[in-house]
Amino acid sequence: MQTKLEESKTCCCVDVGAIIDGEELVASADELYANQESAQARLEDLSAKARRAESDPCVIEHSFETQEDGVRLRASFTFCNQAESLIFQLGMNR
């Protein structure tokens, strides 16, 4: 028995220039953790991922804010180009 495949009449294409315009160099994280140690561990993990994505040094800025419900990590990662920022963002949750 042969199965006939039909060509899709819709296009799921996007112009790359609509996604990567070269302007988005900064990736950010704003996350809440139970304690300082967990927040610090996450910062170290994100920093290592940024270092793997960078070609030129990524500028990493961060702060920890103690709140009633835990410790908030705020971090920004400024890359030299948008492709690196995108690669980093795609790997943030792995």
Automatic annotation (TrEMBL):
InterPro entries in the cross-refs: DUF406, UPF0234-like_C
Q: What keywords are annotated for this sequence in UniProt?
A: Coiled coil
State the GO CC annotations: cytosol
Q: Which Pfam families match?
A: DUF406
Q: What's the superkingdom here?
A: Bacteria
Note whether Plastid occurs among the keywords: no
- Indicate yes or no for the key word Coiled coil: yes
* Annotated coiled-coil segments of the chain: 29-56
Which protein family is it in?
Belongs to the UPF0381 family.
Protein's UniProt name: DUF406 family protein
Organism of derivation: Alginatibacterium sediminis
